[in-house]
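During the reporting period the student researcher (J.K.) took over the structure-prediction task from the postdoctoral fellow and processed the backlog of single-chain submissions. One of the processed entries is reproduced below for the supervisory committee.
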Amino acid sequence: MKYKRSLLKLSGEALMGGNEFGLHSTSLKQYAEEVKKVVDMGGQVAIVIGGGNIFRGFSSSRIREKIISRINGDYMGMLATVINGIAFQSYLENIGICTNIQTAIKMDPIVEPFEKDIAIRYLEKGRVVIFVAGTGNPYFTTDTAAVLRAKEIKADVLLKGTRVDGVYTKDPEKDQYAKKLENISFDMAYQMKIKVMDQTAFILANENNLPIIIFDINKEENFKKVISGEKIGTLVYKNKKLWKN
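J.K. obtained the following structure tokens:
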């Protein structure tokens, strides 16, 4: 196993499957089973979940019309991640995975507050830890929260699960000539304005030398393969390539 401790970032959109919004039972079950495969092989898994399937946040038309402020919209998005976290916990525990949810915003008795040392102890005991409510602050995305939590729990890698199998020179869903990149530096990601994660998350990861792997979470056993060191998806790195061509 190449990456003993990983943080998996799942978007809220991933949890809604083919639905227009909300939660999709098949997707939740599939992701839970993929996490179980990694836990069964001895991997330590933490998860940050987005909330876009329930509330998209600042992009909402009502916010653009100034009915809901940016700050309130961001807090609504944080609460959406809590709903997703509780749902995913249920699916994990249904297949025998012990799980704890930690939140950046105190909300006893629903979930426990974030404590990095406690989170690390949970991971060392083989439990999955789900981090919700982002960073607990408006103006920061769950991508940025994922980088922050990954560094706080001393994760070996951050994994961004998406519906595409990595970073491409152009949108592969729109351009058949788009070329997949196996390795890309953070500097190149800035220059190309890669949108699979926000720029603040890339900057924080770069400054803290945290490798990010962007991969297709929907393909069976991809999570397990990435953890094992197979070249799945695209590696975003700091100074040197961690994968050899």
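The committee noted the following: The chain has one domain: 5-237.
J.K. will present the remaining backlog at the next meeting.
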